[in-house]
Each structure stands twice: as C-alpha cells, then as structure tokens.
Design brief:
The complex is a heterodimer.
Chain A (H helix, E strand, L loop, with lengths): L3 H12 L2 H14 L15 E2 L6 E8 L2 E8 L2 H14 L4 H5 L3 H6 L7 H17 L10
Antiparallel strand pairs in A: 1-2, 2-3
Helix pairs in contact in A: 1-3, 2-3, 3-6
Chain B lengths: L19 H5 L8 E2 L2 E2 L1 E2 L10 H13 L10 H21 L7 E4 L2 H16 L5 E5 L8 H10 L2 E5 L9 H5 L6 E7 L11 H10 L3 E5 L11 H4 L3 E5 L10 E5 L1 H5 L11 E4 L4 E3 L13 H17 L1 H20 L4 E4 L8 E6 L4 H10 L2 E2 L1 E3 L4 H7 L4 E5 L6 H18 L1
Parallel strand pairs in B: 3-15, 5-6, 5-7, 7-8, 8-9
Antiparallel strand pairs in B: 1-2, 4-10, 9-10, 11-12, 13-14, 14-17, 16-17
Classes of the chains: A alpha+beta, B alpha/beta.
Chain lengths: ~140, ~425
C-alpha cells in the first residue's frame, strides 16, 4: 500500500526535536488555511464526538479508495487531523484495516500529550469506521 | 521569585510573614520541571498538590499503622481507627461543625451531593416540590437533581448569574416560594470564581422553609468556613482540592438532618444489628458509611487539614486574594484576553478566553511553557451556554502560587498569540 505521505510526515517528525515538532504541527494547521473546509459540512453529521475541540471529517470514495479531509476549531487538533487524513487517504478498505495504533504512535513521538495520542487513536478508529474498515462495523 | 508582602502572623509555623517561597518548599512536586521549564501549576481548582506532611501521613499509615478500621481486636486496628476517627474531629474543626458526628466521610463532593439526593431529598421531597440551584453549578450539583426530578417529579429552578459572573441575591430570592424545599448552591464557582454569599442565601432559604446544601469544593480551599455561622444544613467538600489525597470527601450535616435520613447504601459498618428478618441501622454518621472506608486517604486528609490550619485559612485567603487581583490586572493588560467572571466578590479562580484562539490551543502552548492550566467547559456546560462560549482557559490558584507564575501565564498567552496568529 502507498503510505508515502505518512512516511514523509513520520520522517519529518523524527528529524525534529520536541519543541520543533510542536511548531511543525502548527505550521501544518496554518498551511491548511489555504484549503478551507466546506462550511456546510461543519454539521452534526460530520462531527466526530468525544473530542475536547470540535472535529469534522468528510469521507469520499473514488475507484474503491477512501479519501478524507477534516477540520477542527482548534489549531493543534487541526494539524493532527490533517496529518491523519493526508496520511491515510487513497487507501482501500482492506489497506485501511491494516493501519494500527503503532502507525499513529509514530506520528505522535511524545511531542504531544497522552491525551492527544488518545485523540489520534480515536481519529483512526473514526476514519476506519467511516470506511467500513473496522471488523464488524459497516460504513453508514 | 517575587515575595508577597507580610499578611499576618502565623504563629503555628513560627513565621510572621506569608512567604510562598517557604511554603513551596513543603510541596516536593513543585521543584520539578516539565519540558525543561519550571512547573507553574495553576490547575489547583481541578486538584491541588500535596505537602510532604500529607505524603508522610499516607506512608506512615501504610507502613506502620495499617489494619482495617472499626473491626479488629488488635493493636493496629485500634491505631488506624483512632487516626481515622480523629480526622472527623479535624474536619469538624475546619468547618466549625458542632462535633465529629456531623461529619460523614464520602469519596468526594459528587458523592456527598448524591448522598443527600438519594437519602434526604428522596425521603422528604415529592412531586411538585422545588429545588433551586444556580446557573453556575458544576455538573455534580445539577445531574443528581435531574435524576431525582426523573424519579420523583420535583421541579428544578435555576437562579441566574449576571454577565460579569455576579450572583444577585434579589434574583435568587425571587425564585423562592412555599414549594421550595431545597436550595443547593455552590460556595465558589469553579469557572467564574464568583463567591456566593452563602450566609444570606441560607437566611433567605430558611425564611422560605427550605433546606440548604452548599457545594464547598472550591469554597473551603480559599477561605475560612463556619457552617454554624452560615446556618446551612449540609456542606460538602473534597480532600484532594484541599491538598489531601483523592478518594475522600466530607459531607457536613446538621444533627437533626442526618438523624432524619435513611441509609443510601447498605453493607458492613452502617448497622447496629442484622438478622434475616430485620436490620437496625447505625446512628449517623456511620449510617452513611457502608463498607471499608477510605481510611488511609482520610488520615492523609487529616494531615492536609492540619497543614492549612497551621498556615491559617485567613492568611491563605489573603495571599490568594492578592494573587487573584494581580492575575486580573495582568490579564487585562494582554490585548485580546477577555476574562470570564469579574464579580466583585471573587476567589482565586480566573477564567478567560483569547480572541481568535481556541482554549485548547492556548492551554497546549501554555503547557509547553511549563504553565499548567485547565481548558474546556470545566463540567459546567450550562454556564458555558449562559455565557455564550464553549470553553475557557482557567487558572486556579493555590496557597503556593506566586505573582511570578501569573506573569509567566501572561507571557505564555502572548507567546500563544504570536505562534497561532
């Protein structure tokens, strides 16, 4: 499976020190300002529940591959959402099902608090659920 | 570190100034760093740090005096029981309650309020009776009454707060009717810092014939409390916000109220005699303490009470009041910072929002500077809705905080504005 975007993020994070990782995350959030999330999609239907900030995720399928984009009202979370949706877009259902919490941990690297690592894991489960890539759970 | 001017003599410690630098040395955790920066702990409203004397009491209890309380025919059980029961007297002293029998051990304020809801209120309230709370209650003083409403059909009435977070007595009084059976209010708002005039609230409630419960989670930590002077029926506080361990809280109950309350949990320790035909319950406070209690934690709480009383609640309150004034003044000087809760009578809890920034981002960047604050709705979602916001950043101060830490908070906010702007 093609995880080149994910690898780019992970390798960049690995090359940075703790403080720089944090600023890198904020930079990702700032860059995403040029790709505004559709206002009409900021509704309950696209809201991911259980976050300290509001997170919306859009899901689309083309040629049997899943594409995600997300948004949050908090910049740090927006950066995290962007890393996740960029990293795991373009995968098939079977490929998405193979993404594990270890993948998520590599994007975290201790730069962020445990609480946010839990949030990222919830995000992974959420996109897998949207794609019907979690055992026993069908896409809505 | 900026020294705080002398406030009053503290004879128990042989000092005549309140010096936070000296006080801080009692708290081992305050000397640690986070992200290679000094820890500036301003999240005391969630839970306060522990002085060495509390840590020593816990260690001593487990290492030297450990056995279950109330039931052993041996030395260690006697020692543990004596230490545990002694904390009832200490808690009674802290609140100026008539005696140790007015003190029920619970696990926290949440459990204390649920106890009153499930026991006193369940037994004495019926459909149509009214309970008055305020808009600034913690969920712990909302949800138990909603559960009761669903069980019994009582009516929940909400006293408003003003835009600046003030509590206006007249607006509260206007809600009182002959049907008001209970007034359950916070002593100090955990979000706004607003200090509710609980003695006046109690007087008005009593005139209306209502019982009064005060949520003292944020009250007892910032000022001296005298439950007899207030005149309330119940006063609840939790150990871990008062520099004690987690897992232990206190419910003060007036003697006649406790006597008229049925048990709410059954088990060991809360009985006089048990047969399959009939059980005779113990008198209060034991009637409300089924099962092995958190006695080690209670012993730790006893050490915490000793600690704050040695410093003096007046002295602690005066120090925190000065800190709060400094915080409000400092934050008002930061462009884009809007305080939430500016009531004239306010304890050392400062909530604010930063224009254009999410509280979570501000909190995360402050964290990187070593400044620990809480962000979110602070378990007070109805208050957030009332104030038209979703969350705040909250700096809640304790006896060991300094003006230098407040200045670090302000510098951290400016840094967040720069990073996220």
């Amino acid at each position: 499976m093609d995880l080149s975007v994910y690898e780019d993020y992970a390798e960049t994070l690995e090359a940075l020190d703790d403080e720089m990782r944090f600023e890198y995350l904020l930079d990702i959030a700032k860059k995403k300002r040029s790709e505004p999330f559709p206002e009409e999609a900021m509704d309950d239907a696209h809201l991911m529940h259980g976050c300290m900030s509001r997170v919306w995720i859009l899901h689309d399928v083309a040629d049997d591959r899943h594409y995600f984009c997300g948004h949050s009202d908090a910049a740090i979370v927006k950066g995290l959402v962007a890393m996740m949706t960029d990293s795991f877009s373009g995968l098939t259902t079977a490929e998405l099902a193979q993404i594990t919490l270890d993948h998520v941990r590599r994007l975290n690297l201790g730069a962020l608090t445990t609480q946010r690592q839990v949030g990222m894991m919830a995000m992974l489960k959420h996109i897998q659920k949207l794609a019907g890539a979690r055992p026993g759970i069908q896409a809505a | 570190m900026t020294a705080i001017p002398a406030i009053r003599e503290i004879p128990a410690r042989g000092r005549n100034t309140y010096d936070p630098a000296v006080v801080r040395a009692d708290f081992p955790i305050l000397s640690r760093t986070v992200y290679n920066k000094p820890l500036r702990f301003l999240d005391n409203g969630a839970s306060a740090q522990k002085p060495q004397s509390v840590l020593d009491a816990l260690q001593n209890s487990y290492a030297s005096e450990y056995a279950n309380v109330h039931r052993g025919a041996h030395f260690l059980s006697g020692a543990a029981t004596e230490a545990y029961e002694g904390v009832r007297e200490k808690a009674a002293g802290l609140l100026n309650a008539p005696g140790p029998d007015n003190i029920v051990f619970t696990k926290n304020v949440t459990e204390s309020i649920n106890l009153v809801a499930c026991s006193w209120a369940d037994a004495h309230l019926s459909a149509g009776d009214e309970i008055v709370i305020t808009e600034m209650e913690h969920h712990a003083n909302i949800v138990p009454w909603q559960l009761l409403r669903d069980r019994k059909g009582i009516v929940l009435k909400i006293a408003p707060v003003e835009d600046d977070g003030s509590f206006v007595l007249e607006r509260f009084a206007a809600l009182l009717t002959e049907g008001t059976k209970l007034v359950s209010v916070t002593h100090v708002s955990n979000v706004l810092g607003t200090a509710v005039p609980v003695a006046e609230v109690t007087r008005l409630a009593k005139d209306a014939g209502a019982c009064v419960l005060i949520d003292g989670a944020q009250g007892v930590v910032h000022q001296p409390v005298d439950v007899q002077a207030i005149g309330c029926d119940f006063y609840a506080f939790t150990g871990h916000k008062l520099y004690g361990p987690t897992g232990v809280g206190i419910l003060y109950g007036r003697t006649d109220r406790l006597a008229e309350m049925p048990p709410w949990q059954g088990g060991g320790d809360m009985i006089d005699t048990v047969s399959f035909e009939k059980t005779v319950y113990a008198d209060p406070p034991m009637r409300f303490e089924a099962g092995t209690p958190p006695f080690v934690q209670a012993i730790g709480l006893g050490a915490a009470i000793d600690y704050v009383q040695a410093l003096g609640m007046d002295a602690i309150g005066a120090h925190e009041h000065a800190l709060c004034a400094h915080a409000m003044e400092t934050l008002r000087d930061v462009p884009g910072v809007r305080p939430v809760g500016e009531a004239p009578d306010k304890a050392a809890i400062v909530s604010f929002v930063v224009d254009g920034l999410h509280s979570l981002d501000v909190g995360a960047i402050l964290d990187r500077q070593g400044v620990a604050v809480r962000v979110g709705h602070h378990c007070a979602q109805p208050l957030m809705a009332r104030m038209g916001i979703e969350s705040t950043v909250r700096a809640s101060m304790a006896l060991y905080n300094t003006t230098e830490e407040i200045d670090a908070l302000a510098a951290g906010i400016r840094h967040a504005q720069k990073l996220l702007g």
